[in-house]
Amino acid sequence: MADEVNLGGRPCKFQDGEYDISEIKDYFNDGNHFKDEKHLCNYIEDNMESFCSEVGIDYKSHTRESYIVRLKMFGKNKARIDFLIEEKDKGIVLLEIKQPRNTYREINSAISQMLDYYLTAEEAGYKINKAIILTTKINDTFTKIVNRFNLPIELVLFSKGCMAVWQKEVS
What we know:
Trna Endonuclease, Chain: A, domain 1; 6-stranded mixed beta sheet; two-stranded antiparallel sheet; 33% helix; globular; disordered N terminus
């Protein structure tokens, strides 16, 4: 059973003992856990069923680099999420992966990117069960924005062998 820590919202699950937010942030932000985002995506894909089990996803299947729109669109600006995970209830989980160099800019822009994917998936008729941004680094602004605007986004801080799950405060 994972210990829980508070990361600005509901408790996080952190697999390696009890830590406060500054220690978690430092661990993830100071680490160079994957060579690049592609290697992180490969690692998640290779361990998808275990990952899904850890974060409460009822895994059925997944598609990598999935175009969310079911209809054929012209042009290059089609919404494409890192992983579209289908759950056994026919709902989906949107999973966007980030290995940011500039934590503030990239994590905050991931929020708008996820909201765009969420809206596109809804308009395409999907039943969305979760929207998750998985990242190796974090800033305080992410949790403040998600809580302040009651956004339907969860955060997973991730490195090999260690994971913290943050969910927005329940209102």
